[in-house]
Design goal:
six-stranded antiparallel sheet, alpha+beta, 6 helices, 9 strands
């Protein structure tokens, strides 16, 4: 069960008007923002919570990392299993979404904050979902196993270092930074990958049991190390992995049929054996469309046949 791993890196700016957090956290702004959305479906709550998106490969930046350079790799692939055409990292920005585990300190009373987010593609760490007992109603055990592989930490630390350079040295942001957010942190001054390693481990959002509810659409028990925390993009996959009949870890076959159960297919991102290099919404659509075609084929219907059940 792999997840995309993400780290929020927040900064404070003392220039009003650059961020939208004043529409949520200052004074009675939240009640006004909610009223605007409720009455007119407009305002902050009607907008997308993220800003610009960008992608990067980190080969050159990791060239001095013994962990990276000595890691085994398949021909044409990096240690994470990616080709040179696939990004290691996605960067995006936000102002009022998520944050470090200290981010109950919202920017109020004239304070303003924003973040750059680094998301790790092709993580090597793998979690597990196991049965607690043979009882059908027993709560399963979910071990997310975040950042268990040292390479995940190494690449994310370098991604944070790169993201910090973008913010602290970029033409559009270098003159607006007051410091790190929350104010007692000092990551805006970090220069080395080694400085970012503890930030990745300790200052990302603590794992949350609600994550597992999204994974399983039901109750669960999450096992994690509270001192080894990380936020995920909630892009879980692999709990019902698709595979050949010879694969002992496969749950569904090549036509998405659950092994050992007649008439039941699984059609969501859980059937993906590994995570792709991107967000999971569009793959979920594609899996659903393919499942629909497979079902039509099984019933002797043409893929273009549409049955109106209204």
């Amino acid at each position: 069960m792999p997840f995309h791993k993400i780290v929020f890196i927040f900064y404070e700016t003392d220039k009003a008007g650059l961020t939208n957090d004043h529409l949520v956290y200052h004074g009675d702004s939240m009640s006004k923002t909610y009223a605007l959305w409720k009455d007119q479906k407009a305002g902050f709550l009607s907008t997308f919570p993220f800003g610009a998106f960008a992608y990067a490969r980190l080969d050159e930046r990791l060239a001095d990392s013994p962990l990276w350079t000595s890691a085994p790799r398949a021909p044409g692939r990096d240690p994470m299993g990616l080709t040179q055409a696939q990004p290691n990292i996605e960067f995006f920005t936000t102002e009022c979404y998520g944050g470090p585990k200290q981010y109950d300190q919202f920017p109020t009373d004239g304070q303003h904050a924003f973040s750059i987010i680094a998301e790790l593609f092709a993580p090597r760490s793998r979690g597990t979902v196991t049965l607690r007992s043979a009882e059908a109603t027993a709560v399963p055990v979910v071990d997310c196993n975040y950042l268990a592989d040292p390479l995940d930490v190494e690449v994310l630390a370098e991604a944070c270092r790169f993201g910090n350079e973008i913010v602290m040295q970029g033409a559009g942001t270098k003159d607006i930074i007051r410091g790190s957010w929350p104010p007692e942190l000092a990551h805006h001054r970090f220069q080395t990958r080694e400085e970012w390693v503890p930030f990745v481990k300790e200052n990302a959002t603590t794992c949350n049991p609600q994550i597992s509810l999204i994974i399983l659409a039901g109750r669960s028990c999450v096992k994690h190390d509270a001192n080894f925390s990380c936020e995920t993009g909630y892009h879980a996959s692999g709990t019902c992995a698709m595979g050949k009949a010879s694969d002992p870890n496969a749950v569904v076959n090549e036509v998405l049929t659950l092994r050992g159960v007649k008439g039941l297919r699984i059609a969501d991102c859980s059937i993906m054996p590994t995570l792709h290099g991107g967000h999971t919404q569009m793959p979920a659509y594609g899996i659903g469309e393919k499942a629909a075609d497979l079902i039509k084929e099984a019933w002797g219907l043409k893929p273009s046949t549409v049955t109106n059940i209204a």
